[in-house]
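Researcher: I'm preparing a figure for a lab meeting and need a structural model of a single chain. I don't have an experimental structure, so a prediction will have to do for now. The sequence is pasted below. Please return the structure as tokens so I can convert it later.
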Amino acid sequence: MIFLTVLISLAAFAVLAVVLYLYILGLNGIFVYRNAQSPVSCDNKKFLVFVPAHDEAVVIRRAVESIRNTDYDQSLIDVYVIADNCTDATPEIAREAGAVPLERHDLEKFGKGYAIEWALSQIDIDKYDAVSVIDADNVVEANFFKVNAGLLESGKEIIQSYFGYFNVAKTTYSYILYLANLIENILLYNSRSSLNLHVFLRGSGMVFKTEVLHQVPWQSKSITEDVNYSIDLIANDKKIHFTALTRVREEALNYINQSFNQRLRYNTGIINLIKNNCFSLFKLGLKKKDIRLLESSVSFFLLSKPMLLFLSVLTLAVNLLVDAGELITIISLFNIVAISVYFGLGVFLKPEKGPLVKTILTMPFYGLWLIIIYVLSSFGYKKGVWVRTPRMHDTKKHPPIL
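Model: Understood. Here is the structure written out token by token.
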């Protein structure tokens, strides 16, 4: 009983420390966002753009055309669509839209990470200043290449652009996703980057200086290939810069049941990353006497709000059983409220209009759903399974929820 009391006390205080740190970063993020400088642009870098795609015939034209419609010299942009185990017309449509299809068939090494690793071996990347990765269901802002070229010119080697949504107010759930993502981008990523702390890649809108891909080769190790590569870069003293001066956007899922596999996959990946990398990155930070590495080793916990919420609820429930003291009850309740209120900081970022009141009323149920997803992830449910996330045209197959 004493051991359990000590354990939940440590857990409650640990979550409290992470929550307070989230708020410090969040307040800094608001300040940085409100005082953002105009983007520095450049137009003399040559880009190789990879668009990984698996059966994306419905959306691939939109993605390629958004790249081709940017305000950048198109002769300096080569677009390759990686048609990964496609059974539809993705390659043909990609070619019509102005991209070069790279068709890949490998059912053993299946998925985006392996597709990018394979594509890098097919193209002479030394002909380019930088390599970018854009998801097949994304659109890029017109200034995407000018901003990233300017950042490359200023000395940045790896850049992660703001990753957001374009149908933010179609349903309550799409607005929840928008607000959560707005907060993630501005209060966490943009804030950390402004403080010269390490940030993690987000899968799309990534730009790499060509030399970096030689120095730290891309290797797909799991279904969270972007965060895994981030760790490889951080361990090799490479700084990932985040910018909110340009964006890539995707269609937000309209209904909560469409995103079950997506959230499950993400949480499973984060749990595995914590298990496999937190301690080793901490040891590396101690060895190099690098405070940024030490901070990065615990920053994984910032990526999963459901984990923090679950631990808070768990410490509260266990404390009611073992009676570890009133202080632990107060701290656990504070953590639950603080994590919930954290999302309210997005109001200070002037969010786009949407069903705000309905969203606030729905958030507790969304939080409970996220806790369930986290518990399933913790027990390895569908571990390592990649399932295509439904798009808007798949909605009829998925009865609306929220």
